[in-house]
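=== RUN LOG ===
request id: a7f3
mode: sequence -> structure
chains: 1
length: 403
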Amino acid sequence: MLFSSPLLTSINTIIPPENNGYSVSDLLNDIVAIAPSLTSLSLVASQRAGNRATNHEDAIGTLPQRLERLAILKLPPYFLTSTVLELLSESQIVAIEFSELPGSVDNAGDPRDVSFLRPDFQHGAFPALRRLSICGRLPDLSVLLSDIFFPAENLVDIVVRSVRSESETDTRLFVKDMVKRCFRLTSVFLLMTRPLEPLAEWCDEDELEGVVWLEDWANEPLTMETIRPLTTLRDMQRVSIAHARPLNICNDDVHFLCSRLSGLRRLILNPVPRFKATCDLTLLSMAHVSSLCPRIRHLALYAYPPTLQEQNYLKTVTHFPTGMQLQLHASPLQVDEQKEVALFLSRILRPGANFRYIIAPMADADARGYAVKTTSPWAWVIDRVSLMLEAREEERSFVCPHS
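=== RESULT ===
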């Protein structure tokens, strides 16, 4: 027996597997009965559960009609189909976001359900929408954002997840179209890496059309020209990019980006590429970020140690703010470079910096680049910098005991 709870405003629940006797429609009916005042709903599921959005589009798309206060709806990436978009467009929904399983960059559903997005919007679509997370082919998403009935100009936060490998040209054109239409954006996340478990190889070629992922080495790297349009969005606070290959950018590109977007609080420049390749970005770029973006709180990079020519410049740097979160996935580090790198990091960071997320490069880690080996040169750097920051804090406390 179900009891209604008017005080319940947020639910995070698991979608039941297909063919288990308890359908998605049954689940949503129970949620409506239990929590009629719901304002936020997150639906998560395992990819192996066999759920497909096409089987439940009406049940999901009509949720805002049954939950009048629903403002935030979080769905697996492959559940935001053309039909679901059309149904939700008639509601007062404020945010459509991705739901995620802990520790996963994938989720339930089938990418073929979103491989050809062609929603038919009517006048007045999405009157309250401000945050959008969407998955699809970039040319399709460009068309969607350019729809005269879609209020792209009201969006302040967008997450774009590719459903296939995209060329640099298509990515650049999409970013250009997105900036042209979504000129109030303050947060952009381009998620261009393939999921952990791509579509099964046994699918027919016709079924695979539109969702083909190239090998990581075959992907075209993104360049500064790809993301240059973002620098015209002066209110931008968060820029995040994930791609199979290291970004083809240099220190001067980061300097330009930060000089145009001085209000950045979060800058994630593809810190964990799936394919190791030489890049021109070095730790010098961190000095550009710290000096040009005083509000920065979270920085993630895939960068090389500074060159000999850069080391003199790095002796005078602007500190990052207290509480800074730094995620550094760098190129292989030689033993004779350890001291210079540790010294630089100790200069640019303040005591209290969140150092947990500095992780060794893929060459020093496991296949996915997530774990630090204790023998890694970067592990030595991490330990040494932590000690140097602690010593600086103790010295400051001794000199100014009441500060």
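=== NOTES ===
The chain has one domain: 39-199+207-348.
The mean pLDDT is 84.
=== END ===
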